[in-house]
Fold this protein.
Amino acid sequence: MKMEHIKNGALYYNNITSRVERVIGKVSPVRVLTYWHHTEEKSHNVKVLRKANQLEVENYLDGGDIPTLKKRILNTINKLFNKSDKLKFKVS
């Protein structure tokens, strides 16, 4: 993929990490900063990215690629704080 095709906020499949990641910024003319579900920010060469297909995007947005234990923990925390609505943890 070329830098001129990269858009901030879009989802791309990373061939190195074998998962869908969101591009959050440009680091250099050939590198972008990505994260996976608001964690693990890393810079990658744009050559290792390709646009995520519809199935990959849906899986990412539904949280299907988050490990089950992490999902259960975040859901439990959200239920505990749901009464007060002071703190919300993002499941996806």
Remarks:
- The helical segments are 54-62, 68-82.
- Strands lie at 11-14, 19-26, 31-36, 39-45, 49-51.
- The first strand starts at residue 11 and ends at 14.
